[in-house]
Specification:
The chain has a single domain, classed as 3-Layer(aba) Sandwich (Rossmann fold), CATH 3.40.50.1110. It is built from ten helices and six strands. By secondary structure, it is an alpha/beta fold. It is globular.
């Protein structure tokens, strides 16, 4: 059994009334017959509560509203150890670049995160998503440049740090992802955006590691 842990910021934890891409990914793993568990030290949506679409959803994660690489790097080792995580699905970076660190500093915190995760589990696998399209990058040219620079540094770090025992994998945001149609505020994913983020991880895991299968939007309706 593979033990998956979702790691992220507000787009991963979600808030009351949201399904989150975590739920979409879990449904995908179940639909493809993947023997897995969802683990992590936290369970609640932002603001408290557990208002998910179905009561059987395993709600564990390591995500937080307003948290980024600099917040997760110091806590990932304990989380991996306690949860006995095998695979980390990570979507971070927007918060860092928006409020805390520049591209180089953010990339260094990403490397600290990987080192700490491997200290807890030398065979951990980590799939990472670049910073996704967002309204600030659409309207703030210097910020957009930092996002692009970080995504380049992230790709380089994945190539530099990946090793056979503990591989790293860079997922790709679907080309169809559009902040006008796939978010409810220019940043946070709506139902269709949640599906597309889940599909980014699902397709990467299937193609690179043979986990699961191609993502099927029909597993759950895009509007639920």
């Amino acid at each position: 059994m593979l033990r998956f842990m979702f790691v992220g910021d507000s787009m991963t934890i979600g808030s009351a009334g949201e399904h989150t891409w975590r739920l979409r990914m879990w449904r995908h793993l179940r639909a493809t017959g993947t023997d897995c568990a969802v683990v992590g030290p936290r369970t609640a949506l932002y603001g408290g509560g557990h208002d998910y679409a179905e009561p059987d959803f395993p709600q564990h994660h390591l995500a937080g509203w307003g948290e980024g690489w600099q917040h997760m790097a110091p806590v990932i080792a304990d989380a991996v150890t306690t949860a006995r995580a095998d695979v980390l699905l990570v979507s971070l970076g927007l918060i860092d670049l928006g409020f805390y660190t520049n591209a180089e500093q953010t990339a260094e915190n990403m490397r600290r995160f990987v080192t700490a995760a491997r200290a807890a589990n030398p065979a951990v696998r980590i799939a990472l998503l670049p910073v996704i399209p967002n309204v600030r990058a659409d309207t703030d040219a210097p910020f957009a440049a930092q996002v692009a620079h970080f995504n380049t540094l992230l790709a380089k770090a994945v190539a530099d740090l990946s090793e056979p025992r503990s591989p790293l994998l860079l997922a790709s945001v679907p080309e169809s992802y559009d902040i006008r149609h796939d978010t409810y505020d220019g940043t946070h994913p709506n139902a269709s955006g949640e599906h597309k983020l889940a599909s980014a991880f699902a397709d990467a895991l299937h193609q690179a590691w043979g986990i699961g299968g191609p993502y099927d939007m029909c597993v759950t309706p895009a509007t639920d």
